[in-house]
Amino acid sequence: MKRILLAEDEEILRMLIVDTLDSEEYEVDEAADGQEAIQYFLNNEYDLVILDYMMPTVTGLEVIEKIRELGSDVKILMLSAKSQQFEQERVMEAGANFFMAKPFSPLQLFEKVEEILDEA
Q1: One Pfam family for this entry, by name (predicted)?
Q2: What is the DSSP string of 45-105?
Q3: What does residue 14 show for φ and ψ, rounded to 5 degrees?
Q4: What is the pLDDT of residue 83?
Q5: What is the pTM of this model?
Q6: pLDDT at res. 79
Q7: Of residues 30, 32, 22, the one with CA closest to residue 1
Q8: SS3 28
Q9: Which strands make up the sheet holding 48-52, listed edge to edge?
Q10: Does domain 2-119 bear CATH number 3.40.50.2300?
Q11: C-alpha distances in Å from residue 91, one per residue of 23, 28, 81, 104, 110
């Protein structure tokens, strides 16, 4: 079973994503903010981390930087309403592997996650 860490501060979107990914293939841990995501990451191993860009306390960008500082090469998918080219470049430079602009359909996310984890 593949393990995914999801950090998203919008509860309804977080629930939708978990429902979309909830299957026999994936186990999903949920974090409501970046600080909680870092704590989960420090205590568990993941095949994929899905992060919202704009979160209170610690942003998704800061979470990426922390994960990479720890030397982890875990796959990271950033979700963001900030879809301008310079924002995407900033996310990728910080160490994300993939970027998905909001809004997205649950099917698009599921297909992207399957594509990422099939490569791993």
Answers
A1: Response_reg
A2: --SEEEEESS-SSS-HHHHHHHHHHTT---EEEEEES--SHHHHHHHHHHT-SEEEESS--
A3: -60, -45
A4: 73
A5: 0.95
A6: 95
A7: 22
A8: strand
A9: 26-31, 2-7, 48-52, 75-80, 98-101
A10: yes
A11: 29, 23, 13, 18, 21
Q: How would DSSP label each residue in 78-94?
A: EEES--SHHHHHHHHHH
Cβ pair 100, 79 in contact under 8 A: yes
How many Å apart are CA 105 and CA 86, to the nearest integer?
23
Residue 78 near residue 99 (C-beta atoms within 8 A): yes
Q: Is the dihedral of CA 40, 44, 117, 107 positive or negative?
A: negative
Joined together, the tokens standing for residue 19 give 């429902």
Question: What's the gap between Cα 76 and its chain centre?
Answer: 6
Measured in whole angstroms, how far is the alpha carbon of residue 31 from the centre of its chain?
10
Q: What is the mean pLDDT of residues 2-20?
A: 96
For range 73-82, the mean pLDDT: 94
Q: Check pLDDT > 80 for residue 120.
A: no
- pLDDT for the residue numbered 56: 87
Return the ∠ at Cα 61 (arms to 107 and 5), rounded to 5°: 50
